[in-house]
Design goal:
With about 70 residues, the chain is mainly alpha-helical. The chain has a domain at about 35-60. The chain has helices spanning about 1-25, 35-60.
């Protein structure tokens, strides 16, 4: 389960970095318009799907909240 969260977070960060690359790259004739917007849309979709998966896993009992330990 932890690997799934790690892979999803790495995918989110990679999509954000790719959007940054598209933002900083000079536009050329071979570049398509909207690549940065597509990369950011992918990041939002991955973030929402990760959130929904965490909520599903919590409701099915696959993961449990542990809270912040007090008194440490």
């Amino acid at each position: 389960m932890n690997w799934l969260f790690l892979v999803a977070l790495l995918g989110i960060l990679a999509s954000l970095a790719l959007a940054g690359v598209f933002m900083l790259r000079r536009p050329g004739p071979e570049d398509k318009k909207g690549q940065m917007a597509k990369a950011l849309a992918l990041r939002v979709a991955l973030s929402i799907s990760l959130f929904l998966f965490v909520m599903l896993a919590w409701s099915l009992g696959w993961i449990e909240p542990r809270g912040v330990p007090l008194g440490r």
